[in-house]
Design brief:
The chain is α/β, with parallel strands linked by helices and 382 residues long. Helix content is 31%, strand content 22%. It contains 12 helices and 15 strands. The radius of gyration is 21 Å and the shape is globular. About 5% of the residues have low confidence.
Length: 382
């Protein structure tokens, strides 16, 4: 039975491998993805016609750079599918920073591939464990944000709640606490700082590994509260912190990721390498998890390009421009070639040992899985 390149790609365990085989397979998978969306999305086919681009032009890996992209803001205004609506099994609505909603819809194939990407990346970075842990989830309670009859905040939080919830599956669970929850019937989500600080203090005293997941602002705000009582709150050495979301604190000020890592490493007595960050966009879907040095490396599942904001020209490594993301995982919507409104650059000089290049985001824009929900969530910090 014939197996497509995209299927083979998602079977590879070497997520950050830079082999010629991986490169060839990614190219073939992207070409398959292009063909699929070109044939099944009238919107995307029209973009190709407007730019005079045809499938026959994708002959080599370098031709990937020529593939037409869709600008991220399009998904704020249009519902664009490459599969019949009846095949959609999961829909996320992201609130955005101006109240304009962007939707991502997954069919079963897209959902399964997204799950594989996360699992394989976590394993490749050494972040999975067989040791049972207690989970502090500084995000919306997933069970309360995914059912019927939830509030407007609950609906907009669904994407972030789902993503953060997925990171509680990489070590067996002893106990889990969600900091943002609906505490009374008919009420909205709320955050109780004293309760969260007491729970984290309790978890630390149990002696088991603690896995802290969720928005960094809530994590940091809770740690600051604990610092009033403790100079240090040592955690089990296998403890891990995995944050995803906006880096603005409730005051509107930002803490740098480097300072955040240093401060939490000292307070909890764990290596800085145990503190990771996640970059995610609802429209793109590939989970980027930082390495031990704090950088987001390009995994097997994506290719990142930097384009000049005015000319669209592809820029060399080290120069700042708009980030373009390509991935063959998404089948349900024509977002496989996506131009973001995020400014950043690509480099290949990380000392962590991973050979693949990494990207740095200098300023975030667009509608993102975490940012819109993080800004909404920050209203709960008093």
């Amino acid at each position: 039975m014939h197996k497509y390149a995209t299927e083979k790609l998602f079977e590879i365990k070497d997520v950050f491998g830079a082999s010629k085989y991986n490169k060839k397979l990614f190219f073939e998978a992207i070409r398959e993805s292009f063909d699929f969306h070109y044939k099944n999305s009238a919107f995307y086919a029209d973009i190709c016609r407007q730019t005079s681009f045809s499938p026959s032009e994708i002959k080599s890996y370098e031709d990937i750079k020529k593939i037409p992209y869709v600008f991220i803001d399009v998904f704020k205004h249009y519902e664009l599918l490459s599969v019949p609506k009846k095949e959609i099994i999961f829909t996320f609505t992201s609130s955005g920073t101006k109240g304009i909603k962007s939707q991502i819809m997954w069919d079963n194939v897209s959902l399964n591939r997204q799950t594989v990407m996360r699992e394989m990346t976590m394993k490749a970075l050494g972040l999975t464990s067989n040791i049972s842990a207690r989970y502090m989830v500084f995000s919306y309670d997933y069970s309360q944000s995914s059912g019927r009859g939830v509030s407007a905040r609950g609906m907009s939080a669904r994407g972030a709640a789902y993503a953060h919830h997925m990171y509680t599956s990489f070590a067996p669970e002893i106990e889990k606490y969600s900091a943002l929850k609906i505490r009374k019937p008919g009420s909205d989500f709320s955050f109780d700082l004293k309760e969260a600080a007491a729970k984290l203090e309790e978890f630390a005293g149990k002696g088991d590994p603690v896995r802290i997941v969720g928005f960094p602002s809530f994590t940091y705000f809770t740690v600051k509260e604990l610092m009033k009582k403790h100079k240090q709150l040592p955690l089990h050495p296998e403890s891990v912190i995995i944050n995803g979301g906006g880096w603005k604190m409730h005051t509107g000020q930002e803490i740098s990721k480097q300072a955040y890592r240093r401060e939490l490493s000292r307070f909890f007595g764990i290596p800085e390498g145990n503190i990771r960050d996640v970059f995610g966009m609802v429209e793109h879907g590939v989970p980027y998890i930082s390495c031990s040095h704090g950088n987001f490396h390009e995994p097997l599942y994506s290719k990142i390009l930097i384009r000049h904001p005015l000319t669209g020209k592809i820029l060399p490594d080290g120069e700042t421009g708009l980030l373009q993301f390509l991935t063959p995982y998404i089948r349900s919507m024509p977002t496989f070639s996506l131009l973001s409104s995020d400014l950043g650059f690509i480099r290949n000089d990380c000392g962590c040992g991973i050979k693949k290049p990494y990207f740095t985001v200098l300023r975030r824009g667009g509608t993102t899985l975490y940012k819109g929900c993080a800004l909404t969530a920050s209203e709960l910090i008093k």
